[in-house]
User: What shape does this take?
Amino acid sequence: MNPSERRDFIYRKLHECRTISISTLVELLNVSHMTVRRDIRILEEEGKVISIVGGVQLNDALRQELPWSEKALIHHHHKRAIGKYAASLVEDGQVVYLDAGTTTFEIAQILAERFNLTIVTNDFSIAQYLMNKPQLNLFHTGGQVDKRNYSSVGKSAAMVLRTLNVDISFISTSSWDFEHGISTPHEEKVLVKQALLEISRRKILVSDSSKYGKYGMFRVCPISNMNDIVCDGQLPILIQQQLQELSLKLHIVNI
Assistant: This one.
């Protein structure tokens, strides 16, 4: 691997386990301790990671999301279970919005076998997958293309959404917690998600537990703006209890 590839590997690995030792990275990358420390220092200067004694951990202040293709590989088992459960909340005849994301892609794969649904999405991977399902009505928002995440974002996509009435929206996020609400490191995504809050009858956050406790620079909304949250059982019990005190429904999917 060249230096850029090594740093990408470290950053991706931290999205899987949050903390990793330098000795483990030395073994995985087959390089010296000095090389690993140098890569960590650069990642730290970029605000992506934090050095700890003997290792490195992911910075809770999320500066950049992983590309779609890499996110799809992380916690896939959890995402599939969440997607299957979330799809069961959809009723026949509904207009369903699937936000861009790898968990919502799992929902799309289940809904692809249903009938009498209209699917709206800003995700090109979801649209492509559903393109061959003639029994479903399919709308794509269009708008500015986020090539890293295979989606449309920004003002144009939000304007299209505001012309619609959506029964149930599945909203994805890379970061959420009580203090910062639902957030993102990318400003262009905010307008799309905020438009969904206006047009959706039922708003459901779908997220595996690894996203909790992270926060991006741009705030979308407080957690309490959601009607439901679907997450896996590794979400800390204390957080589950605090969520259940809000006026929303928490669905814990046991893996």
